Amino acid sequence: MPSPEPAAGAQSPARTAAIWAALSPVVDAGTPLRVLDVGGGSGMFAVPLAQLGHDVTVIDPSADALATLHRRADTAGVGSRVRGVQGDGDRMHAVLAASGRAVQAGAQEAGPEGNFDLVLCHSVLEVVDDPVSTLREIAAALRPGGQLSIATANRAGAVLARAVAGHPVEARALLDDTDPAPGRSRPARRRFSPPELLDLVTGAGLLPGEWRGISVVADLLSASSGAAPAAVRNLELALAGTSPYRDVATGLHVLATRP
Ligand SMILES: C[S@@+](CC[C@H](N)C(=O)[O-])C[C@H]1O[C@@H](n2cnc3c(N)ncnc32)[C@H](O)[C@@H]1O
User: Fold this and answer.
1) What is the CATH number that goes with domain 31-153+192-209?
2) Residue 242: what pLDDT?
């Protein structure tokens, strides 16, 4: 069954519609949440969540991204509900503790760890030094019963995307999870299979729900396709939880709970 169209992210692009649909029962319940967005960047999720009434802390090493985050939050009129903390996700405990005064500035603030109702980690495990320690830090930042929304690149989707873009050698290397250009200065982004992602989540002591495919078709459509955006969003919602479509999506998403 396709998920219902969420209030959260109702205006989001088709490629993230399935993430917002998964988040909807958590963030549209009418209770203000303490949200931590690890690698939240310029606020693509943080600002809409603050507009829904949630308090959002973003940890990101990029000063530029955090400056854009604050600008975007102020423009949306939710600057008081969004705060940026500069630092790495795999050192989150130390980063939040060091910024304790800023993090604990308001009455509704989450403490340095263990108090967040919801943690987002979207498109970040691909680039952190160590996904295992990042997830361990995230698990510690959640309150018992709190939830993690995690999105990563899907290896199968990357293989197909490289192949249809005319790069069969790269696609073959991705299939074996080897670097098609070893020795380059920037390490290759990590990709994950669904079992690898679920293993990481359970290894951190979290209980994953069903995984979904993110952007099954949206990234395959050219801008000139003429497809109606609302129809593409509906299709994404219908395909996200359905194999074999979800298996070749660009990304993977899972919602997990801290017991
Ligand atoms: C692809 S962007 C994703 C941004 C946002 N989460 C989203 O989904 O729109 C990756 C973000 O991860 C941040 N990042 C890179 N290394 C990181 C680390 N070690 N810990 C936390 N964030 C990191 C980058 O600065 C960037 O903002």
Assistant:
1) 3.40.50.150
2) 95
